[in-house]
Design brief:
It is built from three helices and 27 strands. With 425 residues, the chain is mainly beta. A hairpin with a 2-residue loop joins strand 5 and strand 6 (80-81).
Length: 425
């Protein structure tokens, strides 16, 4: 009995250790952002884009919009405040709204579950649990929440002759998890090296990525990236782009590998084939998480919503695009900027401010705006202030709060009753 109890304790505390997140020098549990005196309104989304919540939608959610000042609205995701745009800082009126950049759930938080973090994680673009993100909207007491700032074009400067386009394909149709002991196919209960979603393990995988309107320039070298996890066998992996061998490596058993490869302009085509080949044997197999191609492209777009890559830079960059016309806004989320594009002579102009990191720039108009259809009111409980005699661990599959015969709740109610001992449950 003692051995069983000791084993259960070890399992519990090992899982608690993985529940912690090491961010820099800080050890976080993910609840540090919560103000337990506030009510939050949880909204869910599963697509990237710009989300607008107007007066009517906020009211439908139960948010106290009639008494809210725009300056006091706050949005959080993954424990961090999210910058937003509010049509007013004063009293919300029926024609007012907020906008923020929404991101579907990916593997951003999952890497904390692996022994070696991002080095072990197979697919940073695809979550192990859900593609749905949760955002929390609240009212706060500070004068102004985190807001986008204007980034006017100013006097301008030398116009960029290209933009950096990213063509990305990621896979989520197969859950790759290492197995051990041959035919026994033993799997560890923890998240293992190269575990995650990718394509079906294969001896050869070819990913096709298109390229168009390529601008040949010495200022940017095209590059292809591919990430994959291996099976338990002996490996001699060969990675090629359009038939040109770029990388090869020999190793044994499970590993998460990522290669970033320069591609000559002469090697590019309208349809580019990135191949991952197991050359050691027919059981030398891999699950590919994603492949992407980045290259300089002509400055034109014809869609309501458009993204491109801004490279790390120590100086501001000025862009001018051919576009369909109308009113477009530009968001540099990392810099905290939201600016209406300047239209001159049938072209749209804007500035991207210097920043020492690569990131995405979003260009959009009102036709691309998204809204929220899933929401709920949340009042969080600070369990560090609760001292129960009984703690019930259950799951959504076992616990249905609307079921009058809910066994978990019935037992909890019994233990808290006089007959059950008047315990705090």
């Amino acid at each position: 009995m003692r051995a069983i109890l000791f084993s259960l304790i070890c399992i519990l505390f090992s899982n608690l250790a993985f529940a912690q997140m090491l961010v820099g020098t800080d050890t976080l549990f993910g609840n540090e952002w919560i103000d337990y005196d506030k009510t939050y309104y949880k909204v869910k989304l599963a697509d990237d884009g710009i989300y607008r919540l107007d007066y009517d939608k906020l009211s439908e959610m139960g948010f106290p919009v009639a008494s809210a000042n725009g300056a006091n609205i706050q949005v959080h995701r993954n424990g961090k405040e999210v910058a937003l745009y509010s049509s007013t800082n004063g009293q919300f009126q029926t024609d007012d709204y907020i906008e923020f950049v929404g991101h579907r759930n990916d593997g951003e938080l999952d890497h904390h579950l692996y022994p070696n973090g991002k080095a072990d994680q197979l697919n940073p673009y695809y979550s192990l649990f859900s593609d749905t993100s949760s955002y929390f909207i609240s009212l706060h007491d500070n004068p102004v929440g985190l807001r986008f700032n204007e980034n006017p074009f100013g006097n301008g400067g030398s116009i960029e002759t290209f933009y950096v386009h990213e063509e990305l394909e990621y896979f989520g149709n197969f859950h790759h998890k290492p197995t051990y002991n041959g035919p026994a196919k033993v799997q560890y209960s923890h998240f293992d090296i190269s575990e995650g979603f990718g394509n079906q393990v294969s001896n050869e995988t070819i990913i096709e990525l298109p390229a168009s309107d390529v601008v040949e320039t010495f200022l940017f070298t095209p590059r292809a990236t591919v990430r994959f996890g291996s099976n338990s066998n002996t490996h001699n992996v060969e990675v090629s782009v359009n038939g040109v061998l770029k990388e090869s490596e020999s190793f044994f058993a499970f590993k998460t590998s990522e290669y970033e490869m320069d591609v000559e302009f002469a090697e590019l085509s309208n349809s580019n084939l990135i191949k991952v080949l197991g050359a050691a044997s027919n059981v030398d197999k891999y699950s590919v998480a994603y492949a992407k191609l980045m290259y300089p492209r002509a400055t034109t777009f014809d869609t309501d919503y458009f993204e491109f890559v801004a490279e790390a830079s120590t100086f501001d960059k000025y862009y001018q695009f051919d576009f369909p016309g109308g009113e477009y806004f530009i968001i540099d989320e990392a810099n905290g900027h939201r600016t209406q594009g300047l239209v001159e002579n049938g072209k749209i102009k804007f500035k991207v401010e210097a920043l020492n990191q690569e990131r995405k720039i979003i260009v959009y108009n009102q036709n691309s705006l998204r809204t929220i259809n899933s929401f709920e009111k949340r009042d969080f409980v600070d369990y560090s202030q609760v001292d129960p005699n009984f703690l019930f661990l259950t799951s959504e599959k076992l616990y249905n709060p609307n079921d009058q015969n809910n066994a978990v709740k019935l037992y909890a109610d019994y233990r808290s009753s006089q007959a059950g001992g008047s315990y705090n449950t």
